[in-house]
Amino acid sequence: MRAVVFERYGEPAEVRDVPDPEPAPHGVVVRVGATGLCRSDWHGWQGHDPDIALPHVPGHELAGTVEAVGGLVTRWRPGDRVTVPFVCACGRCASCAAGDQQVCERQTQPGFTHWGSFAQYVALDHADVNLVAVADELSFATAASLGCRFATAYRAVVARGRVAPGEWVAVHGCGGVGLSAVMIAAAAGARVVAVDLSPGALDLARTFGAARCVDASAVRDPAAAVRDLTGGGAHLSLDALGSPVTCAASVDSLRRRGRHVQVGLLPVDPAVPMARVIGLELELLGSHGMPAHAYPPMLESVRAGVLRPDLLVTSTIPLDEAPDALAAMGGSPGAGVTVIDPWR
Ligand SMILES: [Zn+2]
Ligand SMILES: [Zn+2]
């Protein structure tokens, strides 16, 4: 099969022929229909993820068709249309038993712990625990975004952030996950303030339901701007980018007893204004994807047209363009979501 491979961190990846994967006894091989390009892929390529062994194939948000199944798999067969959370859980540890597969103690992650989906085929572990059926009317390009950024944003806003109608929600960083969060929070009845350096990203955020926008390149203190716009601060704020600056700005955006959810990965631990966390009784929450069993309410909102992840996909590129697109993820996140079609 053809795949995007890198031999060294931070050096150009290339498309080459590699052996097709085989399914584990509990796993499947999926023929990749589409795979999203995510900032986590860039972090992995830069060497920020200790799980990665070289040479490596990135890619962790995908949708496609089951090609082959291992002997222990009971719920899936070749031809099934599927997607998968980026955390593939073991199904047996204490966290899995508690329903918290997103923090499984023996998780695997395609594109991190093993070769990922910037390829024509990808192996996925513990298929009965982790695969999610994709309806025929949902395109692979749209479904691919559900595996990482959209599901992550959904769980961050709804389950971890406990968004409520009428609340102010600040979203710092309006790349793929941030725009998803804007759409999800607005659909939940919240009033959203979008914060980004890019006017293009803010235009998209407005399209997806942001009530207010803060151009972080034009104001001295974006958090103060959020507090002004929201009458004292957001109830819920997300760092959807993952940088020391946006993390601190998100915490500083909150009103008393507000909730910060860290969604974007941070290459280094940031300085968090902890005096403010104590004095205002703020909550600091992490969010790490979403387990397969929690997908049905989100999928129902997608089916009903309340949530429109299809609108987030702004371009589809062939595999040959993926290495350059991966390198470009290190800059300021482009507006919208790029999806790779590995068969083009
Ligand atoms: Zn991702
Ligand atoms: Zn587990």
UniProtKB/TrEMBL annotation:
| This protein's pathway | Metabolic intermediate biosynthesis; 2-deoxystreptamine biosynthesis; 2-deoxystreptamine from D-glucose 6-phosphate: step 3/4
Q: Which domain of life is it from?
A: Bacteria
Cofactors demanded by this protein:
Zn(2+)
Give all residue intervals belonging to the Enoyl reductase (ER) domain: 10-340
What the entry lists under SMART domains is as follows:
PKS_ER (SM00829)
Ordered alphabetically, the record's keywords are: Metal-binding, Oxidoreductase, Zinc
Task: Tell me which InterPro entries the record gives.
Answer: ADH-like_C, ADH-like_N, ADH_Zn_CS, ER, GroES-like_sf, NAD(P)-bd_dom_sf, Zn_alcohol_dh
The record's SUPFAM superfamilies line, in alphabetical order, gives: GroES-like, NAD(P)-binding Rossmann-fold domains
- According to its UniProt record, the EC number is 1.1.1.329
Record-stated family: Belongs to the zinc-containing alcohol dehydrogenase family. DOIA dehydrogenase subfamily.
Q: Provide the protein name.
A: 2-deoxy-scyllo-inosamine dehydrogenase
